[in-house]
Amino acid sequence: MTTSATLLTLDSDPTKLGDLQARVDALCRDAGLDSLAACEFTTAIIEAVTNSIKHGYLGEPGHPIRVHWRRAHDSIDIEIRDRAQPPPAGFLDHAEMPPPDAESGRGIAMIRAYADSARYARVDDENVLNLTRRL
């Protein structure tokens, strides 16, 4: 199978997440993920974008976020880029779910649980998060 790619762009407005979620879910299903796997991976992607909006841009709307969706022969690879402030060092290292009374931290645990790999880098003043899900 050949690879395909789609670039999805939005600004840091949480009201835009529903449209992004629907588009990503459709792309995942079209790529061959079953309903549960598509839902899980879409959830990981939406959590990552939500973290960018809430923590990176501090909820301020109008800042660009790019989601590059790519299907390879055996995986879906997502690259999320923004120019927000960087996350705390080692933020992806916390794979365990926080206690139920914790105010935050569940998003990172879901990203780690629903993506087969998650890698972060700061490149040219941009946050670059790569998520992969095997088909």
Secondary structure: elements and pairs:
Layout: E1 4-11, H1 17-31, H2 35-56, E2 64-71, E3 75-82, H3 106-114, E4 117-123, E5 126-134
Antiparallel strand pairs: 1-2, 2-3, 3-5, 4-5
Helix pairs in contact: 1-2, 2-3
What are the main properties of this structure?
single chain, 3 helices, Heat Shock Protein 90, five-stranded antiparallel sheet, 135 residues
Explain what this protein looks like in three dimensions.
Helices cover 34% and strands 30% of the residues. It has 135 residues and is of the alpha+beta class. The protein has one domain: Heat Shock Protein 90, CATH 3.30.565. Strands 1-2-3-5-4 form a 5-stranded antiparallel beta sheet, with helices on one face. The radius of gyration is 14 Å and the shape is globular. The model has no long low-confidence stretch (mean pLDDT 92).
Major sheet: 5 strands, antiparallel
CATH overall fold name: Heat Shock Protein 90
Q: What is the rounded distance between the termini?
A: 12 Å
Count of separate DSSP helical elements: 3
Structural category is: alpha+beta
Q: Class, according to the CATH hierarchy? A: Alpha Beta
Which descriptor suits the 3D outline?
A: globular
Cα radius of gyration in angstroms = 14 Å
The sequence of SSEs as H and E is EHHEEHEE
What is the residue-mean pLDDT, rounded to a whole number? Answer: 92
Strand order of the largest sheet: 1-2-3-5-4
CATH architecture, by name, is: 2-Layer Sandwich
Low-confidence stretches: none
Number of domains: 1
Assign the CATH superfamily.
Answer: Histidine kinase-like ATPase, C-terminal domain
Q: Per DSSP, what share of the residues sits in E-state strands of 2 or more residues?
A: 25-35%
Based on DSSP secondary structure assignment, what is the total number of beta strands? Answer: 5
Q: Give the helix level as a range of percent.
A: 25-40%
